[in-house]
Amino acid sequence: MLRVTRKISVNVPKSSSFCNECTCWGWARTMVVKRLKSQECHQRNYSIPSGDVKSLRSIITPPISKIRNIGIMAHIDAGKTTTTERMLYYSGYTRALGDVDDGDTVTDFMVQERERGITIQSAAVTFDWKGYRINLIDTPGHVDFTLEVERSLRVLDGAVAVFDASAGVEAQTLTVWRQADKHHIPRICFLNKMDKNGASFTYAVDSIKQKLKTKPLLLQLPIGEAKTFKGLVDVVTKEQIIWNPTSSLDDGKVFEQKPLTETDDPELLKEVKDARNALIEQVADLDDEFAELVLGDFSENFDLLPADKIQSAVRRVTLAQKAAPVFCGSALKNKGVQPLLDAIAMYLPAPNERFYDFLQWYKDDLCALAFKVLHDKQRGPLVFIRIYSGTVKPQSAIYNINKNCTERMSRLLLPFADQQIEIPSLMAGNIALVVGLKQSATGDTIVSSKASAMAAAHRAGREVGRKHGSKSELESLLLAGVEVPEPVFFCTIEPPSMAKQSALDNALNCLQREDPSLKVKIDPDTGQTILCGMGELHIDIIHDRIKREHGIETYLGPLQVAYRETILNSVQATATLDKTIGDKRHFVTTELGVRPWVGETSSTTPIIEYADNFMDPVQKDLEEAIENGINSSYLQGPLLGFPLQDVAVTLYSMTMHSDTSLPMISACVSRCMQKALKKANKQMLEPLMNLEITVCDDHLSAVLGDLAQRRGSIQEIQTRQDNKVVLAAVPLAEMMGYSTALRSLTSGSATFTLELASYQAMNDQEQSALLQKRTGSG
Ligand SMILES: Nc1nc2c(ncn2[C@@H]2O[C@H](COP(=O)(O)OP(=O)(O)OP(=O)(O)O)[C@@H](O)[C@H]2O)c(=O)[nH]1
Which pTM does this prediction carry? Predict the structure, then answer.
């Protein structure tokens, strides 16, 4: 693993507001000390005194008010990884950047991590900055994974949106920004790549204003742009921060911070003063307490307004999501990341400043959400959890509400920077990595015991006036909701050779635990493995991950819609099976009926009933054999072999020879049920999707016209700021390739989410066309 030698500087002055001196964990400082090259003694140095592996073991849990659980949201290539690496470096936990002494980089370390079967950035990484514990949580890159995005947003308390300053708001950021709006997550903006040709602070800020419909609060102004970018001015304190003004060392740890004066740059000073006044007016408009202060004591001269008053007011409006503070820099050129870290601590919320309604039900009992499962080659599944209330301890039992099981966690780790540190306990507000949980999967809710879950359920029941102890009470305590959407697409997946089949099975098992919306089954006729997923992209990514993470090149069959089948009338059938195997005669005859079942919700498992005169009691093993027979027929409908929905089965009679084996009974029941189903009036059901499209006015009519051609029915058109939100129901079969179609209809400006609403009956014409296409008969 990573070597523990760390490069630190000595004699760091304490006075600066950007100094990270106060990150004192009382570590034994047993590390190797190297002096930085060409260090100028009059300049401030912001490298952190950091510990080695041993000292990291003594890290303490900070108070909850000092924890920041944040995500970094960015369009592809905006600089999320570079910014994260700089954060780890400046906070003192990696020795990567331009470590010219021995050429060791974070990338090397990442490769090592990958070889061990895990990457630090796959879920969360923890580090400390000036006494704050920062947990950076990965937000999934692909927003088509609605479930994943929602889950990761659920564990964030705040977010940093990173932009390419030459491109402004790009599509991916726009989409995640909207999701964050939905989940009420406070955000700050970082205009990265200020050094790049074409970088424009004004353009990027305008684009935030226009496209994100938020109020940007300019807390910094850049000094120079593109090639001339060398630092920034803090608008609140009017201090300029210039990186590396004289030193040849260019890792960004050294910078100069001093008040901007008339002699430095009169024009820039005027700009900063104007920006400060504008900021004060803007914040006063959004915050009554600040408005009172401004209008009272400082109405004549904003210059006298203390910086901390402005900062507190900016924090309040950020937490209330009335505006988003804007910072700038160049992660690649090592400029602006330390002030960004300060901003995270200063302006984003602590866990106890967020409202979670379920906390009142758990009080001080443990309540945590498993938000990611990783498979470590050595240690097995590692489960990332966010603790909302209570304390987690290793070697203790936990109860998983989703799986209705008790599990034991063997070890508790903190994903601290580039290492995983074993810890004795962890409290509410934190992110932890748990070893030893065999069943828990992404999205599961974890509490201390079943009794604790029931107690919370009762409290919740009282709150919402439900009947105590009901199943739905317990379900209401599931943090990520109970709904794992039904996969609606499927395709076959094949390994390159039969020898790789078991490796593929293993890879699919691992992926399923991480991603509950992925289902895998075996085609009963062909024996082929079938992947069932939520969308085209979902299946694509799974395919790619099997290759990248498990080294197996697989072949996918064509993508198909997961239809279902049902029946429209009641029918009865009888079947007999009579076979002699060896000296034993297996004889069984049965009579059963199938009928349409109407319930409150649709049923994808058979409803099985026994007629009064059916043998009483039915032996347990016989009952199992009968149910096995029914279940196997239920998975293969009579029209195209899709699973059945909403069918009830009644067993009327059964006679058998005493030597008849249970598998023969199952086979006879299955055959009888298939006979009955064939006789019934059959109906194909197709997945109907709830579609939500966010589109600007200009493209609305094109989008609506296209939906009409896709058999879509518009349910509502809402207005969200300057955008329209179209809510529609559309058959999934019409949605193949929709992301490409929508992109070309709207020049990439619209976004959409798609989720299963229900299965609906196809009309005669569509059904005939489908049967004709699949079987050649209508
Ligand atoms: N000029 C310039 N380039 C940068 C800056 N930050 C990142 N880059 C470059 O932009 C490219 C993408 O950077 P990453 O940090 O990988 O961006 P990302 O957002 O993590 O990218 P994905 O993981 O692909 O989404 C790389 O070539 C970086 O070197 C910057 O501040 N200035």
Answer: 0.67
